Amino acid sequence: MEPVAIVGYAQSEMSGHMVSSRDEMIFTCVKQALDSAGIVRDDLDTVISCGNDFYDGHTISQVYTLEASGAYAKDESKVEQDGLHALVYAVMRLLAGHHQIAMVVAYSRASDMEPHAAVAASLDPVYDRQFKVLNDTGVAAFQARAYMERYGLTEDDLALVVEKNTGNGARNPKAKARPATSKAEVLASAPAFTPLRELMVYPNTDGICVAILAAGDRAESLCQKPVWVKGLGWNQELYYLGDRDLTRIASAEAAAAQAFKAAGIGPKDIGLIELSELFAHQEPMLLEAFGFAEPGQGRKLLREGVTAAGGKLPVNVSGGALSACALSAVGLVRAVECARQLRGEAELTVRADFALAHGQCGLAAQNNVVAILGREK
Amino acid sequence: MSEKQFIPIGNILPPMPCYWSVGPYLERFYQDLSEKKFTGVRCPKCGRVYVPPRRLCASCRVVMSDFVEVKGTGSLLNFTVAHQSVNGARRERPVIFGLVKLEGADTGVLGEIRGIAPEAVRIGLKLQAVFAEKPGVTVESLSHFAPAGQGA
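Output (structure tokens, whole complex):
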């Protein structure tokens, strides 16, 4: 088996209200990604798209978008989870040896639908959903309360996550869904589902991210600075809310352990982290799950400046999901932001040999995926 | 915010009703709920009591068939005050929604909480179920939970 690398990518502006049509958004970004890899559509062997039928209002929705995705008359398939799951799928297809170049296309447009209602459709239909109260923010609120009560976190701890990430995002020309937001503004925002306030929840976002992957020698011949996929891990935990220990994210622990084992490295080797923290409390929880802090101690990394853009272990230098979060695309954006950093292309460059990108799906991060990326083959 | 460049066309579809046949375990739960009773099922291996009942124990993975009635009183495991509707729009009146561990059960059951100010709610609050005046075989048979001792 040959190693696989990211050899090209593009992302649209991630904003609250994109003016183009869906097809145009997809076509434009796919073309930019092909150009960035120096290839044309004919070079593609397989295309994996990531979207969601409920976000698209269309069953098997890629039948509608695959022509704009460059997948006409190509080997193609779709993932309904997160764009980083789609990247895992594309890597598997390359490792299987039948294809040499794969493209991952992940997008959604919150301004065309009601994202919280769409995600609420993943609630247990026969009991939990019957009350017509909870959505993804509501379930995340249970997780936030369980975690905050167990370890004594305050609203300030959550507001500081938003302040750091949106402050970083303000320097990222792509992350346009939420501007730099101070701790005081977060604390003054209206309650959503307590203890979460409106500005502790991901902003409704339109956007697309595309990545092109190639295996082994092909990656090196195509690209001066391929970014190698060193390890992948993914895991899923119990479905019923009452069954889960909401004070930790067990599936994220397992996903990271699998990715680190595959990469042959550990948390101490990571120089940069990009998280899909859809809700502010999930940033410290995920850092704990990945082994960067003891349980309940993740907030200290932020308070001590470790996770700041200029800190020892920068987290979400791009702005993270709290600055822009096009559902389905958000985890792939994290991998692309890591790749931009490792190639030295980002607005705010961090020195790192290895980076960790994270994606999630399901209610209260029920399913997590981790990719470890590196500059060396 | 800029306006959309192109006119938006609505997602016109005929109504698409969809039903879930709940199976024997949840059917029994909903039937008993309509008689103002909570039914759970006990795991023969670990002894955990699940409410609502289900066929397999989440940790032991064994089939459970020992149905037990649990009390309508319990304590609050976790809660949120919903200031938003399912689609994210603001609610006129907040709704307190919690996970309640009924006496005799080992899992939490979701339900609305009334009869207490949102800011007074704490984990561990003692609650009792209040049933609908005219219960049916739906989740609406459980009207809400109220602080214990207030009388239904």
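DSSP finds 14 helices and eleven strands in chain A.
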